[in-house]
From TrEMBL:
Annotated Polar residues bias: 1-10
Compositionally biased tracts (Low complexity): 25-82
Organism: Bifidobacterium longum subsp. longum
Keywords of this entry: Glycosidase, Hydrolase
UniProt cross-references to Pfam families, sorted A to Z: Alpha-amylase (PF00128)
Record bears the keyword Manganese: no
Gene Ontology molecular function terms on file: amylosucrase activity; hydrolase activity, acting on glycosyl bonds
Residue ranges of every copy of the Glycosyl hydrolase family 13 catalytic domain listed in the record: 156-608
Protein name as annotated: Alpha-amylase family protein
GO BP: any one term: carbohydrate metabolic process
Region (Disordered): 1-82
Length: 683
């Protein structure tokens, strides 16, 4: 034990020495800077207190206030200073949030210069915000729950796979309007290296659209056209890491200590080994380890995801200020929703698993405040692939909100589990847990997206239900690759780990539901059943709390793209199985009666019609109900005296359901359902 303590102390000493060196260098740099600019600083301070409104138009609202700081309750804070009349709206918003924003910022950094730089960036972004977006801000401030309306209907897609580039995608807006979309999530489209970019999640410039997809002007033009069509644009903002080709990473490789401090760089394995004691690996099979040796700078760099993705050091305030600046600039191009990627990972601390740390929530809360000050029309969608007990924290509280909504990963996984096992008990339990969350918790529900299906089920509940977690997981991923007797699915494994026997699943909704196998085998009865299965899954997903999002191609039953195996740049990642080019030839059949595409297209129309019911109001009461049948899920929606019951049969056999009565909600009722039937009952 003594030896272990000595080792820990030695490691701690090494880290403190590194920190001290960085602090000393920073202090020296600041001292030199202060010595050479003291006169200018004094002049600026005088101007700030006597003639702030005399700034030129070219620099309006771009310089933050640095007013006299006052001491109150032993805490130092910046006072709100006057800004040009044109920034009155921004000033009012900032005044409502500045104390909290500064307190949060100082709790992480205790750096007033960096805080002033952040406020300056916010003021500049507001000044640069186009007039039409400022009008949208005003409208959304009067309707803050706009994204919760029952008519919200989303889709996610890759720009290049759907249309080629942003200009061509703009020409396809009529197709999107046909589906009455109100929300379009475009997969990563910022400047990225090729081919190693993790599907666009390795970003080398957060301020610029990837040249292969277009320009910033193309993105702004597309956003405006979508807005006119009633469609809000969502894009990914990858907070945790940059590409190894980012200009910061290149400067770090060249030996610049300032930019090495934008990442986690170490000369030997002392600190990395200590991190590795507690930090689990994200991709132990395809990208093992949490650090990568960089030959150019002779240091280890933290790369929790892939070696070409360097984790950002948010303990450095310059990183936060720079990243927040990029978010605001993208918002000014017309982005209305940011899916913030890998949020739980963004704060690193030795001795922890570097997941879901309190500082993460401090940063997300600051991001929410920044957006509310600069561009309140914009909302945050978090990607939090964590246990349900971790989810509520990412919404914050009604008094201090964080994300507006989250990806409903857990329900997606449980839907597929229920379909394969014909057992809805795990699904029902999960829905109950999410429905019990506070009213400020909202979800984007989906069946498929760009990513895999990771079988992260609630193992405690599985054991309570006498389900062996590992055996059930193995059953599921083998079932969806079509390797289990009786399986109708066609998919592939992703990230199989022989040691842990863990794996994930890939494939399109149609192929996983049996449509591809039915077509290949010319099995007409199987095709009819598979279509019913597909539509039942979509209806069940869309009936839940939140709003539905389709994966592009689901509306026409697009099948797996097996041709990815012929592309050397894509063959190593089986997720490319469901990342294939949109089939416009098949899409043309959507209006032809009797075609597979027409069946799915009309099914989605029925889905949207279902959600026009008043019981899909944002404040509707939603709950599951016991059916006395493990194959049938019942969900009840109630609003202003109206009740809607949704029954969903996850079995290939006819099923009977009985629902007990409850005063004020429903009378006892019975129902018979056909295989994979969705049944709606108005009471």
């Amino acid at each position: 034990m003594a030896q272990s303590n000595q080792s820990a102390q030695a490691v701690e000493s090494v880290e403190k020495t590194e920190v001290a060196k960085k602090a000393a260098k920073t202090a020296s740099t600041r001292a030199a800077k202060t010595a050479t600019t003291s006169t200018a600083t004094k002049t600026t301070a005088t101007k700030r207190t006597t003639s702030r409104t005399a700034r030129t138009t070219a620099t309006k609202a771009t310089t933050a206030v640095r007013s006299a700081r006052t001491s109150k309750a032993a805490a130092t804070k910046s006072a709100t200073a006057k800004r040009p009349a044109s920034s009155a709206v921004f000033n009012a918003r900032l005044a409502a949030h500045q104390d909290e924003l500064e307190q949060l910022f100082m709790s992480l950094y205790n750096d007033h210069d960096a805080f002033d730089a952040l406020v300056a960036s916010m003021a500049a972004a507001y000044a640069d915000r186009p007039a039409d977006l400022k009008r949208l801000d005003k409208t959304r401030e009067q309707d803050p729950g706009w994204y919760k309306r029952g008519d919200m209907f989303g889709m996610t897609m890759y720009t290049d796979l759907f249309a080629g580039d942003l200009k061509k995608l703009a020409d396809k807006i009529p197709y999107l309007k046909e589906q009455k979309l109100t929300y379009l999530h475009l997969m990563p489209l910022l400047d990225m290296p090729h081919p190693n970019n993790d599907g666009g999640y390795a970003v080398q410039d957060f301020d610029t659209v990837d040249p292969k997809l277009g320009t910033n002007e193309d993105l702004a033009a597309l956003a405006k056209k979508l807005r006119r069509a009633g469609i809000s644009l969502c894009i990914d903002f990858v907070m945790n890491h940059t590409a190894s080709t980012h200009r910061w990473a290149k400067a770090a490789e060249a030996g610049d200590p300032e930019y090495q401090d934008y990442y986690f760089c170490y000369p030997d394995r002392t600190i990395p080994d200590r991190y590795d004691r507690d930090v689990p690996q994200v991709f132990p099979n395809t990208a093992p380890g949490n650090f990568t040796w960089n030959e150019k700078m002779n240091k280890w760099v933290m790369t929790q995801f892939y070696p070409f993705q360097w984790d950002l050091n948010y303990r450095n305030p310059k990183v936060l200020v720079a990243m927040m600046g990029s978010v605001m600039r993208l918002a000014n191009l017309g982005v209305e929703v940011f899916r913030i990627d890998a949020v739980p990972y963004i704060w690193k601390q030795l001795g922890t698993n570097c997941r879901n740390l309190p500082q993460v929530h401090t940063i997300v809360r600051m991001l929410r405040i920044i957006l509310e000050c600069v561009c309140p029309a914009v909302v945050l969608k978090g990607e939090v692939v964590m246990a349900p007990k971790e989810l509520a924290a990412y919404f914050g509280t009604p008094e201090a909100p964080e994300c507006h909504m989250l990806y409903n990963v857990s329900i997606m996984v449980n839907l597929w589990s229920a379909l394969a096992s014909r057992d809805v008990r795990l699904l029902k339990n999960q829905i109950d847990k999410l429905n019990s969350l506070p009213e400020n918790c909202w979800f984007v529900n989906y069946l498929r997206c760009h990513d895999d299906i990771g079988w992260g089920l609630d193992e405690d509940v599985e054991r309570y239900l006498d389900i062996d977690p590992l055996k059930h997981k193995e059953f599921l991923y083998h079932f969806y690759e079509g390797a289990t007797p009786g399986s109708w699915s066609m998919g592939e494994l992703y990230n199989y780990d022989e040691a842990t026997r863990d794996a994930r699943s890939c494939g399109t909704t149609a192929s996983l539901c049996g449509i591809e196998k039915a077509i290949i085998t010319h099995d007409k009865p199987l095709l009819e059943t598979s279509v019913d299965r597909d539509l039942m899954m979509h209806h069940a997903m869309s009936f839940l709390r939140g709003f539905p999002m389709l994966n592009c191609g689901d509306e026409i039953a697009q099948l797996n793209g097996w041709d990815y195996k012929e592309d050397p740049d894509r063959v190593e990642d089986s997720r490319n199985l469901h990342r294939s080019k949109f089939d416009w030839t098949k899409a043309a059949l959507r209006k032809k009666s009797g075609t597979l595409q027409n069946q799915l297209w009309k099914g989605m129309e029925d889905l949207r019609a279902m959600r026009n019911d008043p019981c899909f109001a944002p404040d509707a009461w939603v709950s599951t109900w016991d059916t006395f049948n493990d194959s049938v899920l019942a969900v009840i929606r109630q609003h202003e005296g109206k009740t809607l019951v949704g029954l969903f049969n996850f079995s290939p056999d006819p099923q009977h359901a009985h629902l007990n009565a409850c005063n004020g909600i429903l009378n006892a009722m019975d129902a018979d359902l056909q295989p994979y039937e969705s049944q709606l009952i108005h009471l």
